[in-house]
Structures are given as structure tokens and as C-alpha cells.
Design a protein that fits this description.
Layout: H1 13-23, H2 28-62, H3 64-79, H4 82-93, H5 101-126, H6 130-138, H7 143-173, H8 185-196, H9 200-242
């Protein structure tokens, strides 16, 4: 079927629905914009959250007080709905600041993912035998340098599957940014659904968009995981030499 935006679609319900949802009034542009918005928020949160989470763990590794503060924040974020946290940031912390809603959402999800990352590193490290740490010190490494060189590569291998799951969870969680008037995929679909009456096609396109984004990010994470696994083998050889 060839679609022409200037003429009505056929009498086929599915084709008509697709025409009204995607073609009419160039609504496909809204879906593209919403997808890019979701992708932007997600990628920044993943990259920034991963790095900040790593920094959080190092800070807690060397300072008991900071570790307790970070653990307290982790509990707060884990037990509070992310939608509530997002609105607290937007309507309270950044109220009247002029900060764009998209930036507020990026900050919120980055902090949330960083605390998740801190927990993943902690669990991954706990699974490593204690004699690995002794070997690390035997090689003359400081706590921080030894952690980066010897412990972290092995810890990443332990929590890599959970990391992929958390990335997918983050992508799905961003669907609530419409609460602060951000036009992401979900908000665009909701708006178009109210115009075309039948919500099936808008929601179907939304589902496909989220599935595609999740598949893309999971693929990238797996590629990074393979590179880290290779580095981890080198770390294991260093430990064996020390033993």
C-alpha cells in the first residue's frame, strides 16, 4: 500500500489506524522526536550513572562515613517510586531554577542508576575470594589501584548479567518523564491516542520502539562485556603469578 498524506487511507481498519497515527499531519515526526528524547535521557543516565556509581564505590571504599551516606541514598531511591523522586527533583529541588525538564530527568535517572551501579559493584566484589585482596596487596598495589587493576575486572564479570537487566529497566522507567511534560515516546503515544481514538497503533509503535532501544543497548553492553572479560583474564594471570 502506498501512503499519500494528502488523501485518506483505505477502509482497512489497520491501514486506516496506521495512516491516522503515523502519516496524517506528519505524526511520524513526533514519534521520531520522542524516541530520540528517550534515547538521549537513557544514554546519558547509563554513561553518567555508571561512572558516578564507580566513583561512589571508591569513595565508600576509602571513607566509612561516605559509605553510610551513599547506602542511605541507595535505600531511599530503592524504596521510593522513581516517579515521586522525579517530581521531587522537578517541583522542589529545581523549582524556579529555569532548568529544562529534560535535564532534570537526566539528573534524576543518572543519580538513580549511579546508586544501582554502586550496589552492583559491591555485590560483584563480595563474590571474589578474600585471598585475591591479599594477593593484590602482595603485589604492592594500594587499595584504589589494586581495586581498579585486579578486583574490578573480576567484579564486572560477576555482575554483568544484572547490569544488562538494569539497563533495560532504566529504559522502561523513563516512560514516566511525561509527568513533567517531556515529550518522550510514551507521552507522544498518549497524545496521539487521544486524537485518533483507537490506541492500538500508537501503543504498538511505542512497544516496538522500547523493544528496539532495549535490544540496541543490550547489544552494546554485551560488546563491552566481552572486552572486559578479555581484560579480566589478564588480571587473573597477574594474581596467579603473585600466588
Amino acid at each position: 500500500v502506498t501512503f499519500d498524506p494528502s488523501v485518506p487511507a483505505t477502509n482497512n481498519p489497520f491501514v486506516d489506524g496506521f495512516y491516522k497515527t503515523f502519516i496524517e499531519d506528519s505524526r511520524w515526526e513526533s514519534f521520531v522526536f520522542g524516541t530520540l528524547t528517550t534515547l538521549f535521557i537513557t544514554l546519558i543516565a547509563i554513561i553518567g550513572g555508571t561512572f558516578i556509581g564507580y566513583c561512589f564505590y571508591l569513595l565508600g571504599l576509602n571513607n566509612v562515613v561516605l559509605r553510610k551516606i551513599i547506602n542511605g541514598l541507595t535505600i531511599f531511591f530503592a524504596r521510593t517510586p522513581i516517579a515521586v523522586i522525579l517530581m521531587i527533583f522537578y517541583y522542589i529541588f529545581f523549582s524556579g531554577s529555569g532548568v529544562n525538564a529534560t535535564i532534570v530527568s537526566v539528573i534524576t535517572f543518572t543519580i538513580a542508576f549511579s546508586l544501582t551501579m554502586n550496589g552492583l559493584i559491591s555485590h560483584g566484589t563480595d563474590a571474589i575470594p578474600k585471598d585475591q585482596f591479599e594477593s593484590m596487596y602482595a603485589l604492592g598495589y594500594t587499595r584504589t589501584k589494586g581495586f581498579n587493576k585486579v578486583i574490578l575486572p573480576q567484579a564486572i564479570r560477576n555482575f554483568a548479567p544484572s547490569y544488562s537487566d538494569e539497563v533495560v529497566s532504566l529504559i522502561k522507567a523513563t516512560s514516566i518523564v511525561g509527568f513533567i511534560a517531556i515529550q518522550d515516546i510514551q507521552a507522544v503515544a498518549d497524545g496521539i491516542s487521544s486524537k485518533v481514538i483507537d490506541p492500538f497503533i500508537p501503543l504498538a509503535i511505542t512497544a516496538v520502539s522500547y523493544i528496539s532501544l532495549a535490544a540496541l543497548t543490550t547489544f552494546i553492553v554485551k560488546l563491552i562485556g566481552k572486552a572486559i572479560a578479555f581484560h579480566s583474564k589478564k588480571s587473573n594471570s597477574v594474581i596467579k603469578e603473585a600466588e
